[in-house]
Model the fold of this input.
Amino acid sequence: MPLPIVCGIVDCLIATGLTLMVLSAGDISYHVQYLDATVSQANNYSIISEMIQNGNAFFNTYEYDKAMTTFDQVLKLDSRSVDALNGKGLVLNSLGKYQEAISWFDMALKIDPHSVETLNKKGIALSNLGKYQEAISWFDMALKIDPNFVDALYNKADALGELGSYEEAFIWTEKALAIDTAK
Done:
């Protein structure tokens, strides 16, 4: 080994040894616990992310009981998971429990009031209740945050059509199509 590399390694070992001598046993224990907590948190995030994907897969295959159970399990691990709260809302909406779905979307919006997905989903549930004007206001909130959010554009057009505002519905559908086909 060339002398500069050996000296570099020796210097590093000496610096590490001096650092460890400066740290007391309590300090080392604290840092090890901190590292353990950080790794544990990263593992939890990975597990939660995988569970959300599983819940969504169950939802997409109409296995609503399994989806609901999965989202409940996520909420036991992270009660502030917007994805799990939205997932429960989606399942309830699909089961025709629109008012209950809205309450789950509201919980998600308390955590993340700027979630265009949640704003849109709440609008859908309101549309399902026949509250088209109120639904449009939620689609508009989503569009204020993201003017190119295609789902909200289509949903707004649909609600306008239900209200008999066909020309305006056509305009919003055209906006959505222009963005959708450009992607």
In short: The two ends are 57 Å apart (CA to CA). Confidence is low (pLDDT under 50) at residues 1-26, 28-39.
